[in-house]
Amino acid sequence: MYASNDKELNLLDKSSLEFAKKELAPGREENDHFPFGPFFGHVVDKAFELDFFHIFLPEDLGGVGHGIRALCIVLNNICREDSSLGGIMFTNAFAQSLMLEAGATEVLKQISDKAGSAGEFLIACPVLSDPARSPMGLSADRNGENYKLSGKIDYVVLGGMAGHALLPAAIPGEDGYSWFLVDLSDPAVIKSDVVFSHGMHACPAVDIELKGVLADLVGSAGEGNLYFRKAASVMQVAAAAMAAGVMKGSLEEALDYCRQRRQGGRMIKDWSELQMLLSNMAVQTEVAQMLVSRACMAIADKEKDWETRAGAAALHIVSSAADVVSDGIQSMGGVGYMKDFGQEKRFRDTAHIQALLGFLPLKKLDFIRKLL
Amino acid sequence: MVSRKQIKTYLQREPKFDDIMCSLRATGRQAKGIIGETKKVVAIARRFNEEFTSSYAYELDRKMHQDPDHLAWEVVKKANEWGFYTMFIPKMFGGKGYAIASLSPFLEEIGSVCASIANLIGVHYLGFVGLATSWNMRLMDMICREVVNGEKTGNPCLMSFAMTEPDAGTDSQNVEFMDTGSLACQAKKVEGGYVVNGTKIFISCGHLSTWHILFAYTDLQKASENMVMLAVKTGTKGFSFGKKEKKMGQKASVASELVFKDCFVPDDMVLLDRSQIAGLSRTPREVTEMILAAIWAASRVGVAAFGTGAARGAFEQALRFASSTEVDGKLLINHEWCQAMLAEMYKNVAVGRIAYNEGNYANGMDGAFKLLNLKPIYYLSKYTPVSVFDRIMKPLCGLSFTTWISRKIAFDFMGDAEVDRTDGWGSLAKFTATDMGIRNARMAMEIMGAAGVRHDERAEKILRDSKLYQIYEGTNQINRVNLFKRLVARACPGSRCFSEDNI
């Protein structure tokens, strides 16, 4: 995506891309073997040292305070090579964003101040779900100043590695649902093994069972859906930036391959059917980059109807990404399907990105219902 | 209104009636017994799924993630116990002799639950098709009987199809590319046989197979005129297995590298070479093209069945999820948008199935298995006891005359229109059904949301598996051009396919 003339953003653009090429690309296949191989903790630690997880958090809360545009630039570059780290960044940034919407700044500052490692800093969250849409698995009972959470919740991203989790729960007698911050080191938190998933293997999730775990209410009771919608309206563009990055990576690898490979004694790049396929990929990829940049601008400038524009951009990008990454494999034939290249991982990761923040068809319906 | 002559003339116009009405032509001409056989094999496949595939497929896939080098012998042995490797081998070679057309619905059934297990059974028949299209009756009889013996003894004997090369995927599949491409597997004629040097890659089930139907070339500059088909047995000196590919999906169906270093293959293991086709009226290049066309006509219909299976599996998983998951206070299946998506998915399965059935009808009437589908031969084969067949066919297959007359029928008596029709429908069925597979897999993921990405919810595996169908047996892009070449281009004077004119 485009960093424009902002020197700071340009620097971030270059450094995050260099990080992706040097730290992520070489170990992509090995890192993707998790949970059957080692976790790429050293890469996550390095990202923490470089403040990649602090980008979205305001400066007064211990963050870098660059906002959505910077977050999208970094996610875009990271996901060109390996979306797993992008998924970790996104999950943490979404949790932070939701807590900011709920006004839970003190808690965020405390976590930030105390954290000496990525694990202590990161906040887990079930970011593939929109809690308002499905039956609530957790209930919160008042316990003096606090609450006690009980029940089960599926696919809590980073649940196995983060210090805290931001979880939705229903308070008996209250309408709607609320968000709670839980200390994941509490012995009453029972975590499953890492859920084996389609893609983003190194962005691990667990199913969690809580048996009367002490939890802090985040924001006001019953306002969970409001906070989620506000955070999601911005963060859906971050998800789109991830998809745009994956598309870019897929296009780059496809072009590299097609410039070298021969078929029938000729370069395959000379065959017009393949050119057409690559052209469709390139057009969608460039459009995605432009849309993310434009959506970020609309959000940053609080333009009139920015939510509609950002929503349309995000839906377009995550929908078109599936075709691009599929063609990314197709352009390389059999080798595109193999783990020796990055295309097959991008194909899998895209399905995860599409599922971020809830069912894709429901996100489309939400979008049009606002206009109807 | 129209005379007989006029009818003939009008039906010869494009699109030719015979090309667009394969199923209608087959009505009445096809033996009714095939319907009963198809019902039976579908029932067998469903029982196999119920007793084995459904419970083991996901455990197997997880095992393959953990240990990519695992060879799924346990599946091969199970399929061997169930008699699947001889099921579609003609009775004249000792097999059970189910109609080849019933293989597709069988593969759809198994493939709807697990693509890998479907491949571990189905790919053996790709090897068989390669063997059969050489029309070397002696070797067909010998190898098929080893497969039958492997079933009796509990030692599975599978056939692989060894064509693709490291720098020559498509180059080996089309005569137009063979001479200018990068083929490198060379067979050098020496006294008493051939010496083979070269490497084959992406060979499905190579490590699990006993026999390998190998394609090599005596002259790499003119490969299309100098193709040699060889039967190479595992353990042959100079032949070894290389790496196993690490794939995104279909993990248990190993994609093998086969390495040939000064591998001597004796004359009696030569399925077909130039000397064996010298008496035919077709040129060597034409014979090569006809062999490839016959292989793809049959095998691509099989891949279409796999793709249809994937589309169906995705539909079934999405339906299961939608029937049991509440969203916005009601079951997903009661949301109109979801009903529309599920209906679209149902349609996609149906379209895939119609496509592979049309391909099968074309093959049954005009393709490599035409003779077996002729009613007298079909019923003779169906009701003649195996012991009688053995007494008659075994000696007959050993006669060089039998091979000669078979090739005469397969190459000289087969018309170009039949080749166009069967090969064209193979391509059409392949890219149609496999596109349906990936489309449905993606729709299932969309309907299932967060649950879709979980391995234990089963839909994600179908998405990974189904992508490969769009690639192997010729990418869907190549198949589209092949359809144009076979069924469209002849009506467009001046059109060229797979040539420099297309750049």
CATH top-level class of the largest domain in chain A: Mainly Alpha
Q: How would you characterize the largest beta sheet of chain A?
A: 7 strands, mixed
- Give the largest interface pair and sizes: A-B, 50 and 58 residues
Q: What's the total number of strands of chain B?
A: 10
Q: Taking all residues together, what is the mean pLDDT of chain B?
A: 96
What is the 3D shape of chain A? Answer: globular
Q: How would you sum up the major sheet of chain B?
A: 4 strands, mixed
The domain count of chain B comes to: 2
Based on secondary structure, the structural category of chain B is: alpha+beta
SSE sequence of chain B, one letter per element = HHHHHHHHEHEEEEEEEHEEHHHHHHHH
**CATH top-level class of the largest domain in chain B:** Mainly Alpha
Task: Work out the strand percent of chain B.
Answer: 5-15%
Q: The CATH topology of the largest domain in chain B, please?
A: Butyryl-CoA Dehydrogenase, subunit A, domain 3
* Helix content estimate of chain A: 40-55%
Oligomer: heterodimer
Order of helices and strands of chain A: HHHHHHHEEEEEEEHEEHHHH
Low-confidence stretches of chain B: none
Rg estimate of chain A, integer Å: 21 Å
Number of helices in the DSSP assignment of chain A = 12
Helix proportion range of chain B: 55-70%
The CATH topology of the largest domain in chain A turns out to be Butyryl-CoA Dehydrogenase, subunit A, domain 3
Descriptive tags:
heterodimer; A: 372 residues; alpha+beta; Butyryl-Coa Dehydrogenase, subunit A, domain 1; Butyryl-CoA Dehydrogenase, subunit A, domain 2; Butyryl-CoA Dehydrogenase, subunit A, domain 3; 3 domains; seven-stranded mixed beta sheet; two-stranded antiparallel ribbon; globular; B: 503 residues; 2 domains; four-stranded antiparallel beta sheet; 18 helices; 56% helix
What does this structure look like?
- The complex is a heterodimer of chains A (372) and B (503).
- Chain A has 372 residues and is of the alpha+beta class.
- Chain A has three domains: 7-121, Butyryl-Coa Dehydrogenase, subunit A, domain 1 (Orthogonal Bundle); 124-223, Butyryl-CoA Dehydrogenase, subunit A, domain 2 (Beta Barrel), CATH 2.40.110; 225-371, Butyryl-CoA Dehydrogenase, subunit A, domain 3, CATH 1.20.140.10.
- Helix content of chain A is 52%, strand content 14%.
- Chain A contains twelve helices and nine strands.
- Chain A has helices at residues 7-24, 28-31, 41-49, 67-81, 83-101, 105-114, 118-121, 224-260, 272-300, 306-330, 343-355, 360-371, and strands at residues 123-124, 138-143, 146-157, 164-169, 178-183, 189-191, 205-218, 262-263, 266-267.
- In chain A, strands 1, 2, 3, 4, 5, 6 and 7 form a seven-stranded mixed sheet that branches.
- In chain A, a hairpin with a 2-residue loop joins strand 8 and strand 9 (266-267).
- The two termini of chain A are 32 Å apart.
- Chain B is of the alpha+beta class.
- Chain B folds into two domains: 16-155 and 281-503, Butyryl-CoA Dehydrogenase, subunit A, domain 3, CATH 1.20.140; 160-277, Butyryl-CoA Dehydrogenase, subunit A, domain 2 (Beta Barrel).
- In chain B, 56% of the residues lie in helices and 12% in strands.
- Chain B has helices spanning 4-12, 17-20, 22-26, 33-66, 73-81, 103-113, 115-132, 137-153, 175-178, 284-324, 336-366, 370-373, 375-383, 386-398, 400-412, 416-452, 459-469, 476-488, and strands at 159-162, 186-190, 193-204, 211-217, 227-233, 239-244, 255-266, 270-272, 326-327, 330-331.
- In chain B, strand 2 (186-190) and strand 3 form a beta hairpin.
- In chain B, helix 4 packs parallel to helix 6, helix 6 packs antiparallel against helix 7 (115-132) and helix 10 (284-324) packs antiparallel against helix 11.
- Chain B is globular and about 75 Å long.
- The mean pLDDT of chain B is 96.
- Chains A and B meet through strand 8, helix 9, helix 10, helix 11 and helix 12 of A and helix 4, strand 9, helix 11, helix 16 and helix 17 of B.
